[in-house]
Amino acid sequence: MINIKDVVTLDDNNDYIVASKADLDYKQYFLLVDMNNNQNIKFCYIEEDEMVQITDNETCNKLLPLFYKASKEALEDELKTN
């Protein structure tokens, strides 16, 4: 299971932080941010134990508000525990 704040390495050999995750159409998607270049952002899902990058703008646009909501909730939970 992949969680927010986990680090994953993709085929490009870059390490990414899982900034958010969201469910859409029975799939779990991840917002990944390159640890060395925060402008390098990827939207991915897992298929057969491999991260698959999303390039479809329609799907990305649906995911953005879901990622925002999930990140906001995770941050609020983090602040409550500290």
List the topology elements.
Layout: E1 7-9, E2 15-24, E3 27-34, E4 41-47, E5 50-53, H1 57-81
Antiparallel strand pairs: 1-2, 2-3, 3-4, 4-5
Molecular structure report:
This protein is of the alpha+beta class and 82 residues long. The chain has one helix and five strands; from the N terminus they run βββββα. The mean pLDDT is 92. The chain has one domain (7-81). The protein has one helix at 57-81; strands at residues 7-9, 15-24, 27-34, 41-47, 50-53.
Biggest sheet, in brief?
Answer: 5 strands, antiparallel
Q: State the end-to-end CA separation.
A: 24 Å
What string gives the helices and strands in order? EEEEEH
Number of helices: 1
Report low-confidence residues grouped into runs of 5 or more.
none
> Per DSSP, what share of the residues sits in E-state strands of 2 or more residues?
35-45%
The overall average pLDDT, rounded, is 92
Question: Order of strands in the sheet with the most strands?
Answer: 1-2-3-4-5
What are the main properties of this structure?
30% helix, alpha+beta, 82 residues, 5 strands
Task: Describe what is shown at a glance.
The protein is α+β, with helices and mostly antiparallel strands. Helix content is 30%, strand content 39%.
